[in-house]
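WARN retry 2 of 3 for item q-0093 after timeout on previous attempt; input resubmitted unchanged.
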Amino acid sequence: MGLLPGIVLCLFLGSSATYALENGLARTPPMGWLAWERFRCLTDCKAEPKNCVSENLFLSIATRLHDDGWKELGYTRVNIDDCWPLHDRDTEGKLVADPERFPHGIKWLADQLHAMELQLGIYGDYGTKTCGGYPGTMGHLRKDAETFAEWGIDSYKLDGCNANISLMDEGYSEAGKALNQTGRSILYSCSWPDYQRIAGLRVNYKNIATHCNLWRNFDDIQDSWDSVTSIIDYYGDPKNFASFGAVHGPGQWNDPDMLLIGDFSLSYEQSKAQFAFWCLFSAPLFMSNDLRDISPDAVAILKNKKLIAVNQDALGLMPRRVWQKKGGIELWYKDLSDGAKAVILWNRSNGGVALSLEFSFEEIGFNSDITCKVEDLYAISAVAPTKHTSSYNQYVNPSGGVAVLRLTPVMNDAMPRAPVHIVV
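OK item q-0093 returned
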């Protein structure tokens, strides 16, 4: 995904033999690892032998997913991003992996991952060139789809640099159709909504959800807290939510971009916040970090089974921001398939002290007098859920800290009320 001219969008193409993309893929948000944010377009393997975009990088990351317990949690996809091929196609018009960086070829790499029960994703661009200046798929949609199927590719991210945005509605659907016609199930991720947003065009999310398993619809994430909060704010805006929230669900997911946990910029509290929001968003969980050198704290956040369960909940709903109050405090919640609610209390203030934040159960759609078991999903020790009636409060650390809760009704009359959305 690009960050240079033209803004980059990620797409994972989902396909099988059916064109409407009801292909059985991504019934819950996909999980894994994606190279771009952490490793960008590093191609000088002499200067950066460990970190350059090469088969060694992807195989070493796959090994960590396999050996270190990530795969068992659902992190099964390893995704190549931009800058993997030669700058020219071969005489048959096929893309060719750079032989110095991928000496065994992409099919060999896919086979190695499949032997570890992992899946390999690859990157393309709908335009004439990728964001990094490599060959685009324009004029080669079918050829590229057939090539990727021959290689055993499992997901395809289609970017949109150097392309005519007015042609994307047709072109992205044609790319998905080409994938479908290969007969191989390939997860399809589309960047087309974001390019349309940037161009000021109306985005038809119903159409996008018909053709894509995932889609990027906002700015590329950068290694900064400001970037993370801008994405959260975009997803929390009721006008934006109204446009894409209704089509989000099994097989078709809004993608707020990669997880930064384990990289350089986020504090411990901010890392917990990003993971919590992405899990409540029912977002694809694609880490972009160096799993060969990652802190125990980052690992603990990314392996939080209770939050992963919220992310993978069968309903696949997005959360709503109930209120924002002066001083930078917020309440968000989402419904879960067992009748419980997942809640985030967020303290964006920088005052240096934890704040006691309170919400009523009525604000998150329960009856006002209901009793709930409340479980802190980031509790360090195995603390049993506590029972509370009507409301709950908890201290939340400043500078981006979150409390992430699961509220489960313990009475039979816990009929949900219509969501209340208050902006103070």
